[in-house]
Design goal:
The complex is a heterodimer of chains A (385) and B (425).
Chain A: H1 3-15, H2 20-29, E1 33-36, H3 43-48, E2 52-55, H4 79-88, E3 97-101, H5 105-117, E4 122-126, H6 134-155, H7 161-187, H8 194-203, H9 209-225, E5 234-239, H10 248-256, E6 259-263, H11 283-293, H12 310-318, E7 323-329, H13 333-348, E8 353-358, H14 365-382
Parallel strand pairs in A: 1-2, 1-3, 3-4, 5-6, 5-7, 7-8
Helix pairs in contact in A: 1-8, 6-11, 7-9, 8-10, 10-14
Chain B: H1 3-28, E1 37-40, H2 47-52, E2 56-58, H3 60-69, H4 73-82, H5 91-101, E3 117-121, H6 127-138, E4 143-146, H7 158-180, H8 186-208, H9 223-231, H10 238-256, E5 262-263, E6 266-267, E7 273-278, H11 286-295, E8 298-303, H12 323-332, H13 340-353, E9 358-364, H14 368-371, H15 374-385, E10 389-394, H16 404-424
Parallel strand pairs in B: 1-2, 1-3, 3-4, 7-8, 7-9, 9-10
Antiparallel strand pairs in B: 5-6
The chains are: A alpha/beta (385), B alpha/beta (425).
Bound molecules: iron/sulfur cluster (SF4) (2 copies).
The site of one iron/sulfur cluster has 11 residues of chain B, from helix 6 and helix 14.
Chain lengths: 385, 425
């Protein structure tokens, strides 16, 4: 399959705010679908109940907000209002439930709004542990067991250990290919365009996991067959985008401003587990252990020791990045409160950085592009160390 | 007015001021007295437990609010922004950071000691977690986290209770033992919890007094003074009970004499509107804001902000027979740890129980925990109670977001609307 064909498919999925793929999938499989917000949703558990997990990341820059603004003050980020817009306009009626992982107070309160506004639907605020010891583990196990029961009720299917192991296996495979894709981009950033990677990641919110895995495989095969011109860009890591997503136009602009993005944290829900989840006798425990021990660092996850920022520094070293771009959604408390702490660490390590804010419907692309362009130029001129 | 009456009116205020000043003095002398210091947050604080180890608590939000009242928050916030903190984030955090960067001089002008322990309980607010991550970088002391599960489904489950109790037993108490060098004494804790419960009983009676007409208290502007002792360093101590006894006696006196609360503009006896409030006050403009409302003849009969450290009207009391478990329940019961639907229920009940004419939502730019969802709360309350609400926006410590003229205009039209409704009724 050609790269263009695959990316065209991703674009269609990205643009389709009516989620027709999901509706068709439900119809064809006579099954149900559960939506989830960033970051930490155990998609394996939804899948094991025979349902489709659907990542809902706001409405992007194509959605006209008609009623969503009436629900949020101007100083609250964008993603909850566009998500409400999707909900009140009936675009999410196909969802049989919605998960709100505990990443900030906005998402937390949105879960309560959802309970009030969409009565009769399954709504779950997933209080992921911030205590990563035995106490947190015990608590998370009860959260997972409670969700498993609810998913069984919503789907009418039992989640057997076999079914869950099977789903874990499929998601492990998917994560492995995502890792391959990220490694490939880091090795050959001129070959794997970031805008394409972003679209492939966004597709993973929608597509059934096996189908997405196949898409990744096809893309990796197709890209290996083609030759794209090598460009003189600087290697940067983008961080802060774990929740509200930058618009595709912004992602493209960053790349066109002279930056090769060699790692990022968007659509993080699909790659927050750093290692394969164990397959064994007690897959629920395996899900909990993977979350506690082998999870990517983000602003929404507490760092117990004194190594705040080390994760990013390690990423910079491993990816041989020359700089870091902090791109945080406006009014995002977790990302923006993290920023000064991380900047201190980067300064200590002599890693150049720049920072800007965006919204999912940002129109200020040109200003940002100039800023990151200047940043790239300065790295080229002065080097990163 | 005779001397006896005057003293009755002002006793509790004087007591409260002295208690707080005394606490800051103790803090300033913590080093020379060999007292260990714990920084921790107000909502769901473990005051009795900290005191049971002979340690002293510091509440960064109290420092921030006091800086706000003393009109220093603007400078502190800008100082923090100089260090790279975004204008978008919670100003309480920035006010605290700015104060620290400028020498950590506390609200009474005395220096604050450094923490020996950061006790991070992020009840009802995710930003607390980030706040202490930031402080952790500044201080070379241990940090201990207590995760308090959110009441997303409107109740405290057995699992939630077990989680908190277990963390208290296995994480928090050992950390306090280590830092204080003292063994945990459960009997001492129990004695304190019994005193806490007494103070809580009295506070509930004070809140309920606003059902009288005229209301003898202002449950918002006045209320924030009433919660000082119980939500900070004094819960669990005999002087806390004494304070609430004195307060209760004053309130009783006012009920008997059909008097309204004392405001900076004098006694508010002519109460034209009884209003329920959601959201924190604006500290730098506290008196202006209060004056705008007293000028209109408004008395605040119930508020949610004064429940950030616990809602005791639902029957919860610290319980000496279940010390750690009840401490855990206390943490989980704070107002912002309640789900949005539960918050609507609470407000609806206030509007009805306190025969309110309407309600005011004071929406705060800083605080996602309070603010996200308040517009839905507003429409839902209007629907359920048939009473109109007014929505006002500013900030709790950032003076840049307070516009007295806008607020005044909006409130004036709101009260006109209530008048029109009344005339039509
Ligand atoms: S963008 Fe930030 S503040 Fe907004 S919902 Fe996401 S994590 Fe929360
Ligand atoms: S977000 Fe709200 S509750 Fe949290 S620290 Fe800021 S003002 Fe306090």
């Amino acid at each position: 399959m050609k790269v263009e064909t695959i990316i065209k498919r991703c674009e269609d999925l990205y643009d389709d705010l009516d989620f027709n793929y999901v509706k068709d999938w439900k119809e064809k499989n006579k099954a149900r679908a559960i939506g989830f917000m960033p970051v930490y949703a155990p998609r394996e558990l939804i899948h094991a109940a025979g349902m489709l997990p659907v990542g809902i990341m706001g409405g992007g820059d194509n959605l006209e907000i008609i009623r969503g603004d009436a629900y949020f003050q101007s100083y609250i980020c964008r993603i909850p209002r566009s998500t409400i817009e999707l909900g009140v306009s009936g675009r999410l009626d196909f969802l049989d439930g919605m998960l709100f992982p505990a990443i900030c107070d906005v998402i937390r309160n949105l879960s309560g709004m959802w309970q009030m506004m969409f009565k009769g639907k399954y709504v779950k605020y997933l209080d992921v542990p911030q205590n990563f010891g035995v106490e947190g583990r015990e608590f998370y196990l009860t959260e997972l067991a409670g969700m498993a029961k609810a998913f069984e009720r919503v789907s009418g299917n039992r989640i057997t250990p076999e079914a869950l192991n099977h789903s874990i296996g499929l998601y492990n495979k998917n994560r492995q290919l995502i890792t391959e894709l990220y490694d490939l981009r880091s090795r050959m950033p001129h070959q794997v365009k970031t805008a394409e990677l972003f679209l492939l990641m966004r597709a993973s919110n929608i597509l059934e996991v096996s189908e997405h895995t196949k898409m990744l495989r096809d893309y990796i095969a197709a890209i290996s067959d083609s030759e794209r011109p090598v460009r003189d860009h600087v290697r940067v890591i983008v961080t802060g985008t774990f929740c509200e997503q930058p618009p595709l136009t912004l992602v493209k602009a960053l790349e066109n401003s002279g930056c090769f993005i060699v790692d990022d944290d968007w659509v993080l829900g699909n790659r927050y587990q750093l290692e394969p989840i164990a397959i064994g006798d007690n897959p629920i425990e395996a899900l909990a252990d993977a979350y506690l021990d082998k999870t990517v660092a983000t602003a929404s996850r507490y760092v117990p020791g004194r190594d705040k920022g080390d994760y990013l520094v390690k990423q910079v070293r491993e990816r041989e990045a020359e700089g870091v771009i902090f791109a945080a959604p406006s009014f995002c408390d977790p990302a923006l409160l993290d920023r000064p702490m991380i900047q201190d660490v980067l300064a200590r390590e002599n890693i150049p950085y720049t920072a800007f804010k965006y919204a999912e419907n940002t129109g200020q692309i040109q200003v940002i592009k100039e800023q990151t362009g200047t940043f790239a130029d300065s790295i080229k001129l002065w080097g990163s160390q | 007015m005779n001397v006896q009456q005057k003293i009755q009116k002002e006793d509790s205020m004087i007591m409260q001021k002295e208690m707080i000043a005394g606490h800051f003095e103790n803090l300033a002398r913590a080093g020379e007295n060999g007292k260990k210091v714990v920084y921790t947050f107000v909502p769901g604080n473990l005051n009795e437990l900290i005191l049971a180890f002979d340690m002293l608590p510091v509440h960064p939000e109290v420092n921030a609010l006091q800086s706000g009242m003393r009109k220093m928050s603007g400078d502190y916030i800008q100082e923090a922004e100089k260090f790279g903190h975004s204008e978008d984030v919670c100003a309480y955090v920035k006010c605290d950071i700015g104060m620290m960067k400028k020498g950590n001089i506390g609200p009474t002008g005395l220096p604050l000691p450094k923490p020996d322990l950061l006790l991070l309980s992020y009840t009802g607010c995710f930003t607390f977690l980030k706040w202490f991550e930031i402080l952790k970088k500044e201080y070379d002391c241990p940090i201990v986290l207590l995760q308090v599960p959110y009441q997303a489904e409107g109740k405290i489950t057995r699992e939630m209770r077990d989680y908190v109790t277990r963390q208290l037993e296995e994480v928090v108490v050992p950390a306090l033992e280590k830092v204080s060098g003292k063994k945990f004494d459960p009997d001492r804790l129990k004695e304190m919890l019994a005193l806490s419960a007494q103070a809580e009983d009295l506070l509930v009676e004070v809140w309920n007094s606003a059902k009288n007409k005229p209301s003898p208290i202002d449950a918002y502007f006045g209320g924030v003074f009433y919660i000082g002792p119980i939500f900070t360093a004094f819960r669990g101590l005999p002087e806390c009970v004494d304070y609430y006894k004195a307060l209760k006696a004053e309130v009783n006196y006012r009920i008997k004499n059909k008097l309204g609360p004392v405001t900076p503009e004098g006694e508010l006896n002519d109460q034209k509107y009884r209003i329920v409030v959601e959201g924190p006050p604006s500290w730098p403009n506290f008196r202006d804001f209060w004056k705008i409302l007293t000028d209109e003849g408004v008395v605040m009969v119930a508020s949610t902000y004064t429940k950030v450290g616990g809602l005791f009207e639902d029957g919860f009391r610290h319980d000496p027979d279940r010390p750690l478990e009840s401490l855990g329940e206390y943490c989980m019961g704070c107002y912002t740890n309640h789900s949005l639907p539960a918050r609507v229920d609470i407000l609806e009940k206030y509007i009805k129980d306190f025969s309110a004419d309407g309600f005011m939502i004071h929406s705060i730019k800083s605080c996602n925990s309070f603010s996200a969802g308040q517009l839905l709360i507003m429409s839902e309350l209007e629907k359920r109670t048939g009473k109109a609400g007014v929505f006002i926006e500013s900030d709790l410590v950032d003076p840049r977001y307070f516009s007295a003229a806008n607020i005044k205009n909006r409130l004036e039209s709101y009260f006109q609307m209530i008048e029109t409704k009344r005339a039509g009724a």
